[in-house]
Amino acid sequence: MIRVILPPHLRTLARVTDEVSLAVDGAVTQRSVLDALEAQYPVLRGVIRDHVTLERRAFLRFFACQQDLSLELPDAPLPSAVATGAEPFMVVGALAGG
Amino acid sequence: MSSVRVLVGTRKGAFIITSDGQRKNWDIQGPHFNGWEIYHLKGSPLDPSRIYASQSTGWFGQVIQRSNDGGKTWEAPGGGVTPSPQGFPQGESNRFVYDTSSETGKPLTTHQWYDGTQHPWEFKRVWHLEPSFSDPDTVYAGVEDAALFRSVDGGRSWQELAGLRGHGTGPKWQPGAGGMCLHTIILDRSNPGRIVIAISAAGAFRTDDGGNTWKPINRGLRSPYIPDPTAEVGHCVHHIAMHPSRPDALFMQKHWDVMRSENAGELWEEVSGNLPTDFGFAIDVHAHEPETVYVVPIKSDSEHFPLDGKLRVYRSQTAGNEWTELSKGLPDRHCYVDVLRDAMAVDSLDSCGVYFGTTGGQVYASADAGETWAAIAEHLPPVLSVEVQTLS
Fold first, then answer.
1. Average pLDDT, chain B
2. Rounded to whole angstroms, how far apart are CA atoms B154 and B138?
């Protein structure tokens, strides 16, 4: 199972209190993980990726295994530790303001 | 026993403030949607338990919320795990996509940007939700960048009424300081085909055929700060109010100037009269007196606070021109808040209640048509919108 950690506002929206577990068929990529996440929690559609372009919203970042994966191609394989569930895939709200 | 429910949208969540018909003791519930901007909440006139809310942030974009129990519990329509007939997950309630279909023939055009160049339409958020008079599941949404959407399934999915954005003047529309927002939607209970909307900064528009075709209704407006002060479009209309018994009579708070039309916007005349300043955002009409109008004068477009630090409501009982200062119970000094365009509302109890919220987090109420005021909430986040439901 793939582990995903959401920022607090999205946990509230999805009505989960902790990280979520997802079954992903095939290659484990940003796209397949987010597809599975939105399928399990449809309320998250449009709040991480644009509804139409499926581009990451500008103020969100993706991290895993101490790497910023935000600019990786959506179909690039995620680290094997994410694919095995050893490490979570993190959706992080950018720090903005001051 | 009558009661009122005040729906307050703020920068950091929604609050619901209730009282019985005496309107002396108030109970504050919330925040709902903690930390999110709630631009607007509004209840269905047919089913007061049905409330729609616009929830957004710069991080996560737009979410539409719906309550079926008067705001006690909320759901994002279609946000649950409910597969569509095709087997795909739903969750379309925040999908506001401009209509570029060949059927309606409205390509995604451009509008004027701050620097005068053309800029593509980009959805940012829902400013205003207006439930219909005919069906609790039908609701209109005014959005930024300016367009009008409608849902006929309780907010689950939205379709643009593209005739408005496709109006030939679209390339001349431009954003105001708050963005290019469609912030006012007025439905006419006696004429279901008629809708009046307003956009900053394009002006007011009206449809008489349910949203298929639109016409600008800005004749009589004068805006010296735009290249053509009497242009067909380009005026920064801040808000419009109407009394349901006189749907042809409209009252407008423009950027500067308070205006009145007696013919559904065909022609406007200035009724600022003796107001100490005619800049402002909020305007509303007494529930039982169609010629009694309320505004909150703000010093200027560069100083968004009341004159001399005194928060004042002004009331005209003559449909404008002659205004009376209402001050009892309002701050007399050191008050530098603003009252935004959707942050004033009235109830329909026998003694009309008037309500408004401030960017300082106060919500003021008057149970006697404005004669006396009291803060029914303080220290809230900046108030973006106030609506009132009168319950029996």
1. 94
2. 6
Q: Which residues in chain A are contacts of B59 at CB distance < 8 A?
A: 7, 9, 57, 59-60, 93-94, 96
**3 state SS of B43:** strand
For residue A82, the domain's CATH number is: 3.10.20.30
Q: Under an 8 A CB cutoff, do A96 and B58 touch?
A: yes
Over range B370-377, report the average pLDDT.
Answer: 98
Domain boundaries, chain B: 87-354+364-378
At residue B145, the pLDDT reads: 95
Residue A15 lies in a domain: yes
Domain that holds residue A41: 2-93
Using a CB-CB distance cutoff of 8 angstroms, which residues of chain B are in contact with residue A41?
81, 91
Select the residue of A38, A43, A57 nearest B59 (Cβ to Cβ). A57
Please check the confidence at residue B241 and state whether its pLDDT lies above 50.
yes
Strand A89-93 and strand A2-5: the pairing is parallel
Q: Which residues contact B33 (CB under 8 A, 6 or more apart)?
A: B13, B14, B53, B55, B65, B74
**pTM score, two decimals?**
0.94
CATH architecture of the domain covering B87-354+364-378: 7 Propeller (2.130)
For the CA atoms of chain B, what is the radius of gyration? Answer: 20
DSSP assignment of A17-70 equals: SS-EEE---SS-BHHHHHHHHHHH-GGGTTTSB-TTT-PBPTTEEEEETTEE-T
